[in-house]
Design a protein that fits this description.
The chain is mainly α. The chain has a single domain, classed as ABC transporter involved in vitamin B12 uptake, BtuC (Orthogonal Bundle), CATH 1.10.3470. The chain is built from 15 helices and 4 strands. It has a two-stranded antiparallel sheet with strand order 1-4. A two-stranded antiparallel sheet has the order 2-3. It starts with a helix and ends with a helix.
Amino acid sequence: MTQDAKTAALDGPGGQPASPDSFASAALRLFRMRETGLVLIILALFIIMSFASPYFLTWVNMRAMAMAFAVEGIVVVGMTILLISGGIDLSVGSVTALAMVIAGLLFLAGVDPWTASALSILACTMIGAIMGFFVTTVGLHHFIVSLAVMVIARGACLLGTGGRPIGLYTLPPEFKFIGQGSIGVIPVVILIFIAVVIASDFMLRRTTFFRKVFYTGSNDKAAAYSGIRTKRVVFFTTTLCSALCGVAGIIYMARFGSAQPTFGIGMELNVIAAAVIGGASLSGGSGTILGAILGVILLSVVSSSLALLDVSVYWQDIIRGSILLAAVTIDHYLNKRRR
C-alpha cells in the first residue's frame, strides 16, 4: 500500500482526518443498542454452558435449538409487528394449535396436505380478521379480544379431536420435508424462518405502509390527524399475527407428523417475552425484528441450558416468568425516560 493510500484509509469523509471522537461516539451508540447487549449476553451464556455441559455445543443440541426457536420465531415476528402498532395477542398458542388440528382433520377427511394447509392458514387469517374487527370496529381492547379467542380456539381444538392427538402417519414425504428435511446441512425450517425474518425486516424498514405501523403505535391520534388510517393498520397487524401462527402450526405438523390439541400452551409467554426482551414496547411505537429474534434465541439458549443442567420444569417456568417480568420492568423505565 502506498503512503497516499494509507493516508486516505485514515481520512474521514471529504478527505478530512477521522476524529477519534467520531469513533468513540459510534462505539458508544453501538453499545447502547439493546441488540448489542443481547448478543453479548448470548455469547456469555454460550461460553458458560460450554464449560457447564459437554453436550451444549454438540451439533445435535445446536440443531435442536435452532429448529425450536425458528418456528416460534415466525410467531414472534407477527407479535413484534403487532406490539409496535400498539396491540397484543394472547391467542397465538391456541391459534397455532388450531392450525394443526384443522389441517390434520382435513387431511384425514381426504384433502391433500397442501390444500389442507392452505385452508388452515386461511382459517387462522380469518380469526385474526375477526379479532381485528372487534378491536377496530366494536372498540374492544386487544387484551380482552385475544383472551376470548385464546379460550375459544383451545376449546375448538379439544372439541375437534376429543382431546387426543391426531396421528398423521400417512403424510407424504414431500410434505414432511418442510418440517423435517434439510438443504445441505441447513434444515428447511431455518430457511423458511430466515425468509420470513428478512422479508419482515425489509418491509418494516423500507416500505411506507409498515412505517405507518410505528406512527400508529407511537400516537394513534396524531397519526390519524396526519392522514394515516390507523384502524386499517391495526386490523392488518392483528390479521398478520394470526396468519403467521397458521404458518407456524403447519410447520409444526409437518415436523412432528401429528396434530396436538394441547400444543402451544404457554407459547404466548415466550413470544411476548422474546419480543419485549428484543426491544418491542408494550406501549407500542418501538421494536425491531432483529431484536425480537435475538430475544427468541436468548430464551431458547436459556431453556436448553436449564434442560441440560437437569433443572426441574417447574423452576424453568419460574425462571422464564422472571425473565419476562425483568424485561417488562426495563421497558417501563425506558418509556418513562423517553417521556
